[in-house]
Amino acid sequence: QVICRAIGNNNTPAPENDARFIAYIVQAAYVNLPVRNLLVLACTKSIQIYEPDGTTHLHIHMLDKTSPNRTESSIYSRGITGFGQNSLCVGNHQGEILLFSIPPKGTNIFLKETIPGHQHGITSLVSNSELLISSDTNGTILIWDNRTMLQKNVIEPMDDSGITSTSIWKNCIAASYANGMIRFFDAGNAQISGSITAHARCINAIDCNEEGLVASVSDDCYVRIWKLSGDAENLQISHECNYHIENSQLVGVKFLHLLRSDIAVSTYDSNEIIVLRA
């Protein structure tokens, strides 16, 4: 069990009952880098990094307050991914990507660079061996070269619905939207490859595995599984199955194995994780 604590005055742990310093976890992710594995918590007010079993707290990065020229009023971090040998990226409410350098051992984790790009709060970060994909609450997707951290392309908003989650399969970017849509884009040319009306309400999370299965969860209480085949230039999308979890707002989904269809699902206001096999 990991207890997320903010830092109060004089860099000491904040009192548990002081609302000014309460930090809520927005997202949690395991990041597996060649040099090290980490548990990363994207929180309100901070980013916190632990050893994978949660026993050792390695680093805390406090977030800056919202700049006057930004549109987001709350302070949060969201979007976690790792790439290269030792690079960890986390997005924030100001539309920035925070790039951390991770040592092979010890606690000498430091912020290497703050990369601006989005005009709205970041909602998701995903990466592969070449690219970093970032999305925001306005529905914009930016495609970066993760070796140089230079922007390669931009996918403009398709409508007035924000992006809630992204994943990547081969050269295909999958993006879920608050209006229940999932859209697929070619990572090479930023063109749309396909779209599906996946859910009746807001999609809160999606995930892809290497076999081309896409899992999506929504406020409509459904887990849905989709199958991708071909590639981004000739994408085929088929619906595989549904699973209904009654009276549950589904907020998280993750494939447990890259090549198998076991998935974990989390629900709002519940401490249980539901494991399904598609």
Automatic annotation (TrEMBL):
Cite the SMART domains for this sequence. WD40
Q: In its keyword annotation, does this UniProt entry include Ribosomal protein?
A: no
All residue ranges annotated as the WD repeat-containing protein 54 beta-propeller domain in the record: 24-273
WD repeat residues: 115-145
What name does UniProt use for this protein?
Answer: WD repeat-containing protein 54 beta-propeller domain-containing protein
This protein's UniProt keywords? Repeat, WD repeat
InterPro entries linked to this entry: WD40/YVTN_repeat-like_dom_sf (IPR015943), WD40_repeat_dom_sf (IPR036322), WD40_rpt (IPR001680), WD_repeat_multifunction (IPR051179), WDR54_beta_prop (IPR049546)
Superkingdom per UniProt: Eukaryota
